[in-house]
Design brief:
Strand content: 25-35%
CATH architecture: 2-Layer Sandwich
Structural class: alpha+beta
Helix content: 25-40%
Number of helices: 4
CATH topology: Alpha-Beta Plaits
Strand order of the largest sheet: 4-5-1-6
Largest sheet: 4 strands, antiparallel
Distance between the termini: 49 Å
Radius of gyration: 17 Å
Length: 155
């Protein structure tokens, strides 16, 4: 079995995970809810609440062909994502690309980017990872990009 290529947008997640593993203090902070993290912004200055912004990057190709149709995507969004985050989210159409490490070729594919604003508690993070795993399993994906950062939010 050949190794799976790592998509470039995952690089920052891998680097952050590696850093977190190298220093126990960083790992503890990364797992702490946003309100308890020492690197969380002081949102009271902005009359806002401390939350996380999670961006999920979903490629839609299966192999070299479009495999996740608009209907497939909408069904996945309605059945798996929205029930986990019923208070709202944003979906943006995107054009992703990544370099295949085996061939060196630049691969382009249509993508969806989902942005979630939510609490940074372990239960929320578990829901996000469930979505990632379900998409990879259902649509035979090697990866789903995930970026999480602390933010100040008001509605």
């Amino acid at each position: 079995m050949r190794p799976m290529p790592i998509r470039p947008f995952l690089l920052s997640c891998i680097v952050m995970a590696g850093l977190a593993g190298a220093d126990p203090a960083v790992a503890q902070r990364a797992d702490a809810p946003v309100a308890q993290r020492t690197d969380a912004p002081d949102c009271t200055l902005y009359a806002a609440s401390a939350m996380i912004e999670a961006q999920l990057f979903f490629g839609r190709n299966i192999g070299a062909e479009l495999g996740v149709s608009e209907r497939d995507w909408t069904d996945f969004l309605d059945k798996e994502v929205t029930p986990r985050f019923p208070n709202g989210l944003t979906v943006v159409d995107a054009s992703g690309h990544w370099r295949d490490m085996e061939t060196g070729r630049l691969i382009r594919e249509p993508s969806k980017v989902v942005t979630l604003l939510a609490g940074g508690d372990p239960a929320t993070l578990r829901l996000i990872h469930e979505i990632v795993d379900l998409y990879k399993d259902q649509f035979h994906q090697q990866s789903v990009g995930l970026s999480i950062r602390p933010v100040c939010v008001s509605f």
